[in-house]
Automatic annotation (TrEMBL), chains A, B, C:
Keywords: Pyrimidine biosynthesis, Transferase. L-aspartate binds at residues 101, 186, 241. This is Aspartate carbamoyltransferase. Heterododecamer (2C3:3R2) of six catalytic PyrB chains organized as two trimers (C3), and six regulatory PyrI chains organized as three dimers (R2). Catalyzes the condensation of carbamoyl phosphate and aspartate to form carbamoyl aspartate and inorganic phosphate, the committed step in the de novo pyrimidine nucleotide biosynthesis pathway. Belongs to the aspartate/ornithine carbamoyltransferase superfamily. ATCase family. HAMAP family: Asp_carb_tr. GO terms for biological process: 'de novo' pyrimidine nucleobase biosynthetic process; 'de novo' UMP biosynthetic process; amino acid metabolic process. One of its GO terms (cellular component) is cytosol. It comes from the Bacteria. It catalyses: carbamoyl phosphate + L-aspartate = N-carbamoyl-L-aspartate + phosphate + H(+). Pathway: Pyrimidine metabolism; UMP biosynthesis via de novo pathway; (S)-dihydroorotate from bicarbonate: step 2/3. Its EC number is 2.1.3.2. It comes from Oceanospirillum sediminis.
Amino acid sequence: MTDVHPIDPRNVQLTEDGKLRHFLSIGGLSKEILEEILDTADSFVNIGEKSVKKVPLLRGKTVVNLFFENSTRTRSTFELAAQRLSADVLNLDISKSATAKGETLMDTLQNLEAMGSDMFVIRHADSGAQHFIASQVTPDVAIINAGDGRHAHPTQAMLDMYTIRKHKGDFSKLKVAIVGDILHSRVARSQVQALNILGAEEVRLIGPKTLLPDNLAELGAKLYTRMEDGLKDVDVVIMLRLQKERMDGALLPSEGEFYRLYGLTSEKLNYARPDAIVMHPGPINRGVEIESVVADGPQSLILNQVSYGIAIRMAVMSMTVSGQMQQKNQQDQNNEEASA
Amino acid sequence: MTDVHPIDPRNVQLTEDGKLRHFLSIGGLSKEILEEILDTADSFVNIGEKSVKKVPLLRGKTVVNLFFENSTRTRSTFELAAQRLSADVLNLDISKSATAKGETLMDTLQNLEAMGSDMFVIRHADSGAQHFIASQVTPDVAIINAGDGRHAHPTQAMLDMYTIRKHKGDFSKLKVAIVGDILHSRVARSQVQALNILGAEEVRLIGPKTLLPDNLAELGAKLYTRMEDGLKDVDVVIMLRLQKERMDGALLPSEGEFYRLYGLTSEKLNYARPDAIVMHPGPINRGVEIESVVADGPQSLILNQVSYGIAIRMAVMSMTVSGQMQQKNQQDQNNEEASA
Amino acid sequence: MTDVHPIDPRNVQLTEDGKLRHFLSIGGLSKEILEEILDTADSFVNIGEKSVKKVPLLRGKTVVNLFFENSTRTRSTFELAAQRLSADVLNLDISKSATAKGETLMDTLQNLEAMGSDMFVIRHADSGAQHFIASQVTPDVAIINAGDGRHAHPTQAMLDMYTIRKHKGDFSKLKVAIVGDILHSRVARSQVQALNILGAEEVRLIGPKTLLPDNLAELGAKLYTRMEDGLKDVDVVIMLRLQKERMDGALLPSEGEFYRLYGLTSEKLNYARPDAIVMHPGPINRGVEIESVVADGPQSLILNQVSYGIAIRMAVMSMTVSGQMQQKNQQDQNNEEASA
């Protein structure tokens, strides 16, 4: 898990007119784009409750799920989102070994492009892999980042923003705490960026000193090592999943010790505001990160997050395809004018 | 393979108005409901022969195949049935280990519910698992039992009933023999229940004494250990599949010995009525349970059963979704009246 | 990998009226049929560039991908082709061991037929397996050969023919060279047949003596062991993939030695005509069969081949279903007349 590719998200993600064209990371996107994503998701949230949960926006489009890292859960949410947009979906299991060399990966992708794919939904263990791919593909394909290394998991961050806006409203009045293994979390990084762009009053990171990276503080977050201090008066508590498989050494005490210090019990939740909401990206480890009575309690929005996640994925899928088509039409027109 | 959950099928399977809402087991269903399933299947049998094998009844619905026990064959029939009803299908491979605790299983299911799933088709090694799940899910999801432990395999039983009714007519005049490893068969249990509810004249179970359970006799079946006696004058012979993987010890002699005593040869078939039909749930073990000349002969309906199986699955899928929507509308209306 | 089934392709592939009914091998097909396939593919090539890449030709049809040999890439092209024809697709992973006996394989297939399948797309390690299956199935199923043993890979050959015709025109004026491991290539065999049927001026096979089979020369091809001689003045260079997994012994020197002698470098490409086109079935081994500068160069049509491959598969799928329906109607009519 290394940062193999230098990342310049600004130019790649947007069309010349500033429309979303790939969705790779929160960094480099404006408040207006993020709010457009949230507004678009709003229109899809209701679809999940209708008897026919389908709109024809991506009819005849081919969405390829390219998961270099296995994640049935995340893949399923993208598959459902694509189906509800009426797209055709191709799930490809790509072992990382088969594409050890960047060149071979590009051959694989160019082949999929040549088959007429319109979108790649990519999860990859290397930070920046999706940016690299996005910088290489033809104008016909949109790239959605479904998680890359420790770098970003932008659709998760946006569904969290959606949850916060829907249940707490105006970001400028909100204190938000993110709790747990910040260091290894691609979600936390994306969340801090999104909260700052959307103008949250205060973003706090809570965890053991060994799992609190400095560079997130630079992005605009306060660091806390004690729940008592960090949760004080917050409006939103976002618990992270313990990424056991991502930990290399002895950065962490035992699970029991972690729970005692950072597990969200109803007792610790009392430090927050009485109307604070509780979120978690799932799947939850009951009794490790969170007490069951909190996970299932009235302040928990954990299952709502799942529902909103489908809507957010439908939003970025439809927006990037629309941006990509607009860009292509623009280029075709430019070519015609140039040759006229 | 233990019976972990107490089962009370009566209330869970039906709406307040007595419509099918989940399809979990034959037990607890009335003759009217079983006949409605058979009649509904009738309307779907013809679809398989049309050039466009599709109806829009489940358009925009999401069907999730949750197979905790692997069975490509059964899963495929449900997948095809769902596709022909125009549903979107999500196949999930769920290793049993990942859901060892009931609580974790419920988290998984609640997540799938939150994604807007309309139906879970579930196969599980634990008897009663589907009943437990059905008692826990929200009003938005219908549960179909695709086989649980030794308990039930109700869609298989109903396709068998469909086959019998289509080819032999009135159940009240029929003697039916079920042959083989009755003890380990979830199909046999469901078949005996269905035949009795539909009013079969006589239900017989034939097998070695070690594989004949007492409790099925209580449900209304005669026990036989010799084919000569059990097959005498029957109208229908249903062979069971030898569930080798389900046998724990030395309940059975050799395969050759089993075939000699209970394999359906053309010679043994002569004990039955000349116009008796031969059925088998498949896949068949030629030369173990059945002689090839019988399996492929004019009395065999083994392949017809497969075709009818798609229609039966379409029937219970469309009926449960319809029942579930009706129940939900009723509840919404009740809520409105309560709050008015 | 043995030739278990004797092959008589002529009768099985065509209806009584000479329409395509299965697509098993190039052998036995007329120039007219091959040209009809190419013309039909022409109408589908443009679909891949439209915003809605879908036609309703196979709506309500069920296509089953039966890959006894794993090939994600080939399966994906058939899956996409089926989706763009609006068919429902069922992917089955069939381990070869589960169907060791031909009889058991036939039971599996008859079950899939009984489920209302309209088409089997089959890849199998045994030469002739698809012919055997096609000779056994009911009139309701069309068989497409997606590669069998060393025998044939006819959709690959046809997409190559499409590429040649689209970029070089009239076959009668073309010299075509096929380079590499001819002996183990099912593609080469199909290509030689197709080129001869379509009237190519000259077909050449280039490779080390140990990898040049005599029987292809009998089909109408000249054998060369030196690139300098074989590539001289050709219009088309088709590189084969090194089938390392197919080689039994020491037929081949090292990879480096192979590349030195038969790898397509820009230097060696100079022997061909200056406007020669370069093709490869993919996936390419850069630096083993072909130099990167050639693979990515202006004469290379490797990615075009992938696009055309979807169109060719859509063509044979729609033509065989149409042929199969016509045959069935004819038979129904004959039966009615016979009984009238």
